[in-house]
Amino acid sequence: MRTGQERGFYYSRVGNPTVAVVEQRLAALDGGVAAVGVSSGMTAIAYTLLALAKGSKGNIIAPSSIYGATEELLNGFLPDYGIETRFVTDRSNPETYEELIDDETKAVYIECISNPNVEIYDIDAITEAAHRHGVPLLVDNTIATPYLLRPFEHGADINVCSATKAISGHGNVIGGFIVEKGGFSYDERKFPFLHRKQYIFRDENNQGRSPVDLFPYAPLGVPIRASFLAGLGGQLSPFDAYLIQNGLDTIAERLDKETANARKLVAYLKGSGHVGKVNYATDADSPFHDVAARLLPLGAGGLLSLEFKGDADQFAALVASLNVFSYHTDIGDVRSLITNVPDTSHVELDPKHLEKASIPRNLVRISTGLERAEDLIADLEHGFKAAFNENE
Ligand SMILES: *Cc1c(COP(=O)(O)O)cnc(C)c1O
Questions:
Q1: According to the UniProt entry, which residues carry N6-(pyridoxal phosphate)lysine (predicted)?
Q2: Do 97 and 180 belong together in one domain?
Q3: For the stretch 229-241, what's the b/e string if a residue is b when 16 or more beta carbons lie within 10 angstroms of its beta carbon?
Q4: Does the residue 185 lie in any domain?
């Protein structure tokens, strides 16, 4: 037995055969070359950003409306490690991302479909802007999943996703993946950690090698395993990998049905007097419609959000009277879920950040499941009547 001379698995914190099967499937679905399974979507995002910035700190460019825990990571956690985020408020304009890039920028980060406002941007144009400056485009494709959108076909370099949501689909697992497209050239000055020679990667003459020496085409996964999983933990459990694999088998059927249900709910909600703006990217009235029509030929999935015209007590009355929807902070489940965004999924955001993220106090997020659309509509109808004291 000699270090680095044999292929295989030796300790499940850094690699496991059951996890590897699902990693390979995720890489194949995305059209990437390699994937690392981790313990949650947040682990995937955090480890990727830390690996890109390790050894040199720097900044990240990101839109101002993203998932709550990611916002907290970028705004509250990473700055103490010397990694700042520059937030773009004109989020669909590629030029505004490019203007913020400088020599210390490690990544442009976007959500392919954003949570909770269901925004979608011109990924091809944002990629071009990032690449002009030698910066990789890192995307969070949790909501669309590779079934609805394959970001590597639009130039993205790394996909970090939560497998907790539509990828597994049953709300019974927490997991995440980091998938590399392969082929991005990481500059040595900007990404010193990927070029650092380490004894752990030694060759047969005991000479240290760097991640780029080992896997020049896709070096990021190497230190994520060897440094982050090995040193911090956060690996995907083999049993969770097995559950994710079971969920993946039905991803097409689930997302088609959830998309069809979302479309019907959007049509119903737009005609309801109890709802203001409805956000759904492929809807004809969405400002993101044209980009969505190009990037999402199969539809936008099951996530939508709406401005509820009642107060907090009325929302509580609505939720209390629902029989088909469950009140949960999750999304991408086979069950339809509803939640009040500023109090749950985006509880981290103070009023100033809610405003920057275009999240009004009365924003309600819905994630459609596999029930009949008629039952979902009847459930909401019944809930609105209870909330607004209208007799049935
Ligand atoms: C849920 C979510 C995450 C975090 O995933 P976890 O598996 O819960 O850690 C990241 N990004 C988006 C868009 C999400 O919806």
A1: 165
A2: yes
A3: bbeeebbbbbebb
A4: yes
Atom index in ligand 1 nearest the CA of residue 115 equals 13
Pocket test for ligand 1, best of 142, 339, 347, 365 (most atoms within 8 A of CB): 142
Number of the ligand 1 atom closest to the C-alpha atom of 43:
9
- With a 6 Å cutoff on the Cβ, whether 164 touches ligand 1 is yes
Residue bearing the CA closest to ligand 1, atom 1: 162
Of 247, 282, 300, the residue at which a domain comes to its end is: 247
pLDDT < 50 regions, the chain: none
Residue partners of 115: CB distance under 8 A and separation at least 6: 66, 67, 142, 143, 303, 331, 345, 365
Range of the domain at 93: 17-247
180, two tokens: 């590399």
CATH number for the domain harbouring residue 271: 3.90.1150.10
99 in the same domain as 189: yes
Q: What is the CA(140)–ligand 1 centre distance, in A? A: 9
Ligand 1 contact, 42 CB (< 6 A) = yes
Asked whether residue 3 is assigned to any structural domain, the reply reads no
Residue finishing a domain among 247, 276, 310: 247
Q: Is the CB of 63 under 6 A from ligand 1?
A: no
* Ligand 1 centroid distance, CA of 3 (Å): 36
Ligand 1 near 165 CB (within 6 A) = yes
Are residues 266 and 197 part of one domain?
Answer: no
4-47: pLDDT as tens digits: 667 889 899 999 999 999 999 999 999 999 999 999 999 999 99
Q: Which pLDDT score, from 0 to 100, does residue 4 have?
A: 63
Considering only CA atoms, which of 306, 337, 282 is closest in space to residue 148? 282
Are 94 and 180 part of one and the same domain?
Answer: yes
Q: Are residues 88 and 117 in the same domain?
A: yes
* pLDDT tens-digit map of 45-75: 999 999 999 999 999 999 999 999 999 999 9
CA atoms within 13 A on the CB side of 175: 30
